[in-house]
Amino acid sequence: MSNLTSTTQWDTRWPVIVVGAGPVGLLLANLLGRQNVRCLMIEKRLVDAEWSKAIGITPPSLEILRKACLHGPVLKAGVRVKNAIVHDERGPAGSVSFEHMESRFRFILTLPQSETMKILEHSLAQHPSITFRRGLELTELQSAGKCLRAMLKGPDGRPQRVVAQYVVGCDGSDSTTRSLAGIRSSKKSYRQQFVMADYEDTTPWAGDAHLFFTKDGSLESFPLPGAGRRWVSMVAGSNGWEPGEQFLADRVEHFCGHRIGGLRRSPVFRFTPERIIVSQPASGRVILAGDAAHVMSPIGGQGMNTGFADAELVASIMPDLLGNGRVSSGNLLSEYNRRRRRAAGSARRRAATGMWVGTRTGRAASAVRRLFFRRILLRPPLREKLAPYFAMLTIPHRRLEQPATSTGSMCAGGHNGKVPP
Question: In a 3-state reduction of DSSP, which class is residue 81?
Answer without folding.
Answer: strand
